[in-house]
Amino acid sequence: MLSKEERDLEQSVYEKKLKSLGIELPKLPAPLGSYVPWVMSGNLLYLSGSVSSLFQNPDGTRPYVGAVGRERTLEEGQAAARYAAMVQMAAIRDALGSIDWVKRIVFMTGFVWGVEGFPDSPKVINGASDLFGAVFGGSGRHARAAVAVAGLPGGATVEIQTVVEFDV
Q1: What is the per-residue pLDDT across 44-82, written as a single tens digit (0 to 9) for each?
Q2: CATH code where residue 136 lies
């Protein structure tokens, strides 16, 4: 059996991985409606949706607003998905105190605001899936749905919601 110190060292892998990738998680935003950012049930953490529209550049522009195929390119959509996944990790940290307690990313739903008939929502959502894989390794591989929609809150390009298994 591991001592507390050994377990703490072993469990610090994901937070260290964030640092090594140069990723600083954003501040968890306040809910935009009558809901909470996360709910725990047993050893599962259900995260409310995170939208890309909250990201703002230093000059005040919001690069992750608008439909892919019209205002946004596929690559910008992927960057929006990556940002939304970062907000999801901020919610995990808020709920668990650290992302190091993640046992597995179980399921993710990704919504993409795309032009009518947009066929590439899975490619857009790869921006989030790839980030989870980079941070959590094999534990970041997950089942998912990627859905193109006619619009998202605040004009967001992407919204992500995630189910996480944890071990505290």
Answers
A1: 999 999 999 999 999 999 999 999 999 999 999 999 999
A2: 3.30.1330.40
The C-alpha atoms of residue 85 and residue 139 are separated, in whole angstroms, by: 15
Which residues lie closer than 8 Å to 101 by C-beta, 6 or more apart? Answer: 11, 166, 167, 168
Per-residue DSSP letters for 47-58? EPPEEGGG---T
Length of the chain: 168
Q: pTM of the full predicted structure?
A: 0.92
| Whole-number pLDDT of residue 2 | 46
- Region of residue 129 (left: phi > 0; alpha: psi -120 to 50; beta: else): alpha
Q: How far apart are CA 158 and CA 11, in angstroms?
A: 30
Long-range contacts of 8-13 (CB under 8 A, 24+ apart): 11/98, 11/100, 11/101, 12/98, 12/100, 13/100
Domain that holds residue 112: 4-166
Cβ atoms 153, 159 nearer than 8 A: yes
Q: Report residue 123 as tokens.
A: 């490619």
**The pLDDT of residue 12:** 79
Amino acid at 122: P
Number of domains in the chain: 1
pLDDT value at 106 more than 50 = yes
